[in-house]
Fold this protein.
Amino acid sequence: MSVLNLVEDNSNNMYVKHSWAMGRFVNSSDEPYDFKHFVVDLDFRTGFTKWVDQQKFSVWDTKPGVKPDNWRELVQDDYKRSFWCRIYVKDVGVLIWERNGRPELEVFDQMITEAWATKDDNPGKVPVFEYEGAEKVKYGMASGYQAKIKFVKWTDRPADFDDLPPAPTAEDSDLDEGIPF
């Protein structure tokens, strides 16, 4: 029995993505999830992310949707627009949805924009969304499936959101010489 339990658990399955090829939500092992409704924690992040040799580098916006002044330099350095959020699915629990692919960026932007219109009328609540399946789309030469998600209503924040790790910080600039202590 492992003391650290580094390879025996399913910790990577706390991540969710919408599979471009399969047309459904899956975990990091591409095992499908079967859910229709979910809520989004409003403590989400938008920013820029790039991958180098399987290592992720992110620069988060200080305010969701507001690009940093150096965003053009980030794009020239191969950073792509991205988002990070926590979602709650009943009978599954809390999942992390973090992506930088255009289909999921468009869907996340559309669904949050739709909910945001009534956010101020619903303080302390979280938006509920309905996954309606996927539709085949084409980007350039590639085609695949984009999620169809609609805003349903606002609801009380599930207690499970309170047991989460903190969201990533805007930048490492808050660190004293790179040391967080």
